[in-house]
Specification:
Strand order of the largest sheet: 5-4-1-11-12-13
Order of helices and strands: HEEEHHHHEHEEEEHEEHEHEEHH
Radius of gyration: 23 Å
Helix content: 25-40%
Distance between the termini: 8 Å
Number of strands: 13
Mean pLDDT: 87
Low-confidence stretches: none
Structural class: alpha/beta
Largest sheet: 6 strands, parallel
Length: about 325
């Protein structure tokens, strides 16, 4: 397979390849840009609107309490979109790197499940914001939790609506022709119907009641909710502990060789703080991102030095190429 055509100096690529080959302890921080080539909307920034709702306004416990049906429709749509997408070459490259480098761990801010589907070892992949395909009980006293529920739709009421051809009136006034048009529409194959874009507020969706939504099989009274860390909720302690243990393992001389920052502006804490912590442990930083504007010139998490790298472009093309000396062709 031909290598990707990269638009930055070959000397930068070669110096990185030489360094990553020699690196032992590597930490990666992943953001939504990693999945851009897989075609997933990020629901951040200017594109962060779903049916005239700010996506962030739907990602709160208060929104779920107020309208669990609407929140589930939003997340069911995201689950459906993520399942329709495929991991791209960057996902596969990072999964392969984790198998080649025993002391490589990944901290992902993504919830789309694409890294897992690319075969990234679970013990080396730490999900900071949860997973679209995990569900848990919303009841205060119930601890029900289910991992990797890929049922789509998770309940029938959350199915994406579709449309087929509408019966056309007879052009000739022949009742037989009109009947045939009606029968053609009625027998239209379900798998060839067109899914409606329910992210568009002009597309009607039903008002769902609690009994339409996923129910907890354990307590029998609570609603299930997506296993996402919503705004205002604590980040998972086991993830924070695992990353801190990696960074501060051993004594102060136990350095980190390299940190990869892929598809994220690294402006949101605490994830952004890990860059400075890795740098304090001796790490050189490699950023792969579509937007050079995310390189903060003074004092920010991406304040890179002359020994660091910034590769601007599509992670799906860049990551497999710069890791090729370690992982081979993807």
């Amino acid at each position: 397979m031909a290598s990707a055509t990269l638009t930055f100096p070959s000397s930068d690529v070669e110096s990185f390849k030489d360094y990553v080959e020699k690196s032992d302890r590597i930490l990666a921080l992943l953001g939504a840009g990693l999945s851009a080539s897989s075609g997933l909307p990020t629901f951040r920034g200017a594109g962060g609107i779903w049916r005239n709702n700010e996506a962030t306004a739907l990602a709160t416990p208060q929104a779920f309490q107020r309208d669990p049906g609407l929140v589930w429709q939003f997340y069911s749509y995201r689950r459906h979109m993520a399942l329709a997408a495929q991991p791209n070459k960057a996902h596969y490259a990072l999964a392969e790197l984790s198998k080649k480098k025993p002391n490589f761990i990944t901290l992902s801010q993504n919830v789309d499940g694409l890294s897992q589907r690319a075969g990234h070892p679970a013990e080396k992949l730490h999900l900071l914001h949860g997973n679209l395909f995990d569900v848990k009980c919303s009841g205060f006293y119930c601890n029900y939790f289910e991992k990797n529920n890929y049922t789509d739709p998770i309940v029938p009421a959350l199915a994406i609506p579709t449309e087929g051809p509408q019966p056309e009136p007879s052009r000739s006034g022949d009742s037989g022709e009109a009947t045939q048009n009606l029968m053609n529409a009625y027998h239209y194959k379900k798998d060839t119907r067109t899914e409606l874009d329910i992210s568009n507020a002009n597309v009607p969706i039903p008002q769902l009641e609690p009994h339409d939504l996923p129910q907890c099989p354990k307590c029998k009274t609570g609603l299930l909710r997506p296993g996402i860390v919503w705004f205002g909720e604590s980040l998972p302690k086991d993830v924070l502990r695992a990353v801190d243990t990696f960074i501060y393992r051993g004594d102060t001389t136990d350095k980190i060789d390299l940190m990869l920052v892929i598809g994220t502006s690294a402006k949101v804490f605490p994830a952004a703080g890990y860059i400075d912590e890795a740098r304090d442990k001796g790490a050189r930083i490699c950023v792969i991102n579509l937007d050079r504007g995310d390189l903060i010139p003074e004092g920010g998490a991406l304040d890179l030095g002359q020994d660091d790298w910034f590769f601007v472009g599509d992670a799906a093309q860049i990551v497999p190429e710069i890791l090729k000396s370690v992982i081979g062709e993807i």
